[in-house]
């Protein structure tokens, strides 16, 4: 008998499966709070968590499907995460700019991405110069460039003028870029730089018959729309916009318990995909 085509599960990480202390949203009484597993340490300090139950579900999911972490993080930021279960064979970093195969960048894929960016959108230097010129040092804490692919600012949200982000988005749109506000970070990302394109490439390589996805931010919308089924939590940019689509389930849970619920849904669907 021919081998059954695998199910591919592509999930965002931050505020979808893993959570900083500030994003946990532990609203229950302390005595009823879930046990947490630290999955990321940075500069000798614990940084990101999931519930122990979610960790177990992720281990099971790795046995049932091709699990692909799909993140806007740089490769260096991704590689300090220690997820439960076996190391994923594929991972997507820098919002699709890097496809890792057994932890190593696929250079052919990266070259294809760079060629598309050069053809379809304004250069990164133009974007970073505009950010330097227009972002007020009063509320900007850091200017960053990720993997020479996109830019982001770390800001003080309470001081950030709401109109500034909207004006930036309009300016960027005309240059083939998109803007996303996530927590204390404002991302400016080229429109052709997408998680969905990299996920389609993994699906092609693995022969996946079904693609499932999860994510919380505007940068995850294309990923969710490209999947056969998708889930988003009750927090994040997509929830704030009440964003949904026919194959997308909008879950009510917020914070780290949303990560647990997402993994339950992914595992259940991977096991019974009909």
TrEMBL record:
<keyword id="KW-0378">Hydrolase</keyword>
<dbReference type="InterPro" id="IPR036412">
    <property type="entry name" value="HAD-like_sf"/>
</dbReference>
<protein>
    <submittedName>
        <fullName>HAD family hydrolase</fullName>
    </submittedName>
</protein>
<dbReference type="GO" id="GO:0016787">
    <property type="term" value="F:hydrolase activity"/>
</dbReference>
<dbReference type="InterPro" id="IPR024197">
    <property type="entry name" value="TPP-like"/>
</dbReference>
<dbReference type="InterPro" id="IPR023214">
    <property type="entry name" value="HAD_sf"/>
</dbReference>
């Amino acid at each position: 008998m021919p081998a059954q085509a695998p199910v591919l599960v592509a999930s965002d990480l931050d505020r979808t499966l893993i959570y900083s202390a500030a994003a946990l949203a532990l609203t229950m009484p302390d005595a009823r709070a879930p046990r947490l597993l630290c999955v990321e340490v940075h500069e000798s300090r614990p940084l990101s968590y999931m519930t122990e139950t979610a960790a177990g579900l992720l281990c099971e999911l790795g046995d049932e499907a091709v699990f692909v972490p799909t993140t806007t993080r740089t490769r260096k930021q991704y590689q300090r995460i220690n997820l439960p279960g076996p190391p994923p064979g594929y991972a997507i970093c820098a919002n699709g700019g890097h496809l890792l195969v057994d932890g190593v960048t696929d250079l052919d894929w990266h070259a294809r991405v760079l060629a598309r960016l050069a053809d379809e959108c304004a250069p990164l230097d133009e974007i970073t110069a505009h950010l330097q010129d227009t972002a007020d040092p009063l509320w900007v804490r850091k200017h960053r460039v990720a993997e020479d692919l996109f830019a982001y600012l770390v800001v003080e949200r309470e001081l950030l003028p709401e109109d500034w982000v909207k004006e930036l988005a309009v300016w960027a749109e005309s240059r083939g870029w998109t803007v996303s506000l996530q927590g204390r970070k404002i991302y400016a990302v080229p429109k052709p730089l997408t998680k969905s394109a990299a996920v389609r490439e993994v699906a092609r390589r693995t022969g996946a018959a079904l693609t499932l996805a999860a994510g919380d931010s505007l940068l995850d919308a294309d990923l969710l729309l490209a999947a056969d089924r998708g889930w988003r939590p009750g927090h994040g940019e997509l929830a704030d916009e009440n964003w949904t689509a026919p194959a997308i389930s909008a879950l009510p849970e917020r914070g780290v318990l949303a990560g647990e619920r997402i993994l339950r849904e992914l595992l259940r669907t991977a096991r019974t995909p009909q």
